[in-house]
Amino acid sequence: xxxxxxxxxxxxxxxxxxxxxxxxxxxxxxxxxxxxxxxxxxxxxxxxxxxxxxxxxxxxxxxxxxxxxxxxxxxxxxxxxxxxxxxxxxxxxxxxxxxxxxxxxxxxxxxxxxxxxxxxxxxxxxxxxxxxxxxxxxxxxxxxxxxxxxxxxxxxxxxxxxxxxxxxxxxxxxxxxxxxxxxxxxxxxxxxxxxxxxxxxxxxxxxxxxxxxxxxxxxxxxxxxxxxxxxxxxxxxxxxxxxxxxxxxxxxxxxxxxxxxxxxxxx
Length: 267
Prior knowledge:
This protein is an alpha/beta fold.
């Protein structure tokens, strides 16, 4: 059996996103008020690849910028479906409550929805609202906050607790996540609840922990799967090129997440 074949599930592959720097990441800055349009224009000057979406009566406020501009004339709610399909990151200069209501009819899953962020009216806070990890909204929020001199308000447990983000571990290194989706949920819970978790690294770059703080004490590192006492750990993160047999997936029912580094990447 190939290591890419999973019991009753498909592999999860998180895209590599550097929202502010990667031109392949489609970003749109959205405003529906005069002040919001002015804020969006200020940010657009620092994000020349980003598009702007503003009411047509405020289009003159963004005239002269190099950024593409979408000026709409009808109800703004009619624009949401197109924005969801056309962009990877939606940055709203609109109230949080209004954004939630506008998004609700269009949300699907975190693997499909774009990253959605809100910048408050004073430009002091940048809040990821949707698809923080897999969709890249958390990373986008931190980059926009740096550009605005604002604070990114991250609410995902792994970011607040400064622990391993199970769903995107090694993403910037090109690692692919492989497991049934339920495993991501179960293993993430073990990590954020500070239960004993084994990280077995047999492949890939060792430079995957980039936070300035040490790994949490509940995370235990190993270099060989055989060295792990599976009765002692609530979950296992396995960084490997090895085949994972159906028997192993069954043995670690909902407790295993596998990461596949590029073959040329050395440990």
